[in-house]
Fold this sequence. Notes:
It contains 10 helices and 5 strands, in the order αααααββααβααββα. By secondary structure, the chain is mainly alpha-helical. α3 crosses α4, α3 (about 95-115) packs across α5 and α7 crosses α9 (about 215-225). Residues about 260-265 have low confidence and may be disordered.
Amino acid sequence: MDDTKENTDELNKELNKELNADLNKPVDVIEEKVEEDIQKIEKETEEKKEHENKTTENNENEKEEQKINEKKEDAEKNENKLIGQETQKKEKPEKDYFKEEKRIEKLRQLVEATLFMSPQPISLQEIARISGTGDLELISELIEALRKDLIERKSGIEIVRETEGYRMQVLSELEVKVSHLAGPTRFSKGVMKTLAYIAFKQPVKQSTIVKFRTNKAYDEIKILEEQGFISKEKAGITFVIKTTKKFLEYFGDNAIKLIKNPDFE
Length: 265
């Protein structure tokens, strides 16, 4: 028991000695230790901050990389979509489109030729029959497109719709100057009416024709005479008009009955 007490006393003395040594250290030594502790704390704080910054930066980089990857995926999807569309187009060859366009253009040409060659108004159904199609709506659209094209080009030709159908003809203001160049089947309706009147009433005075057809009959008679379908003979202050042999050759012997006109003196 005495040994234990002695050991305890020795330990207390040692501790007191160390404590007194620390308390008796110079102030500058204490300040230096405090400074070291502060620096250590600051260093640990800085390292912690750097670690946090790196973590934040890594997170931002990951987010940015994720956005880039998403954009790449979207771009790939769009590219695949475009490839799919191109594949579908290839499955339906473009030549089919051009083939249809060529067919429509051929129809348009045929419709125009039909209207040009027809000496009288021609029905929509007849034009469609000649064109080899039953699509009346398409034929009607092509005729309207041709009509507008002639107007836009300020052409000397026009397409008009009459009761019997469609007719392609020279503009009325140009007709008098060019009608003599055409065959009788291309005569205007007015010229044909005058010719029919002459054929039925012949021999007939020019003054009588003018009364029936108005003053425009002078130009129509001139056209018919230049074409050789009528002849004129002086009779006082007017002319006597009748059809010629060419008229019979062209329209046939049965086209008219040459009867004496009781009104002719």
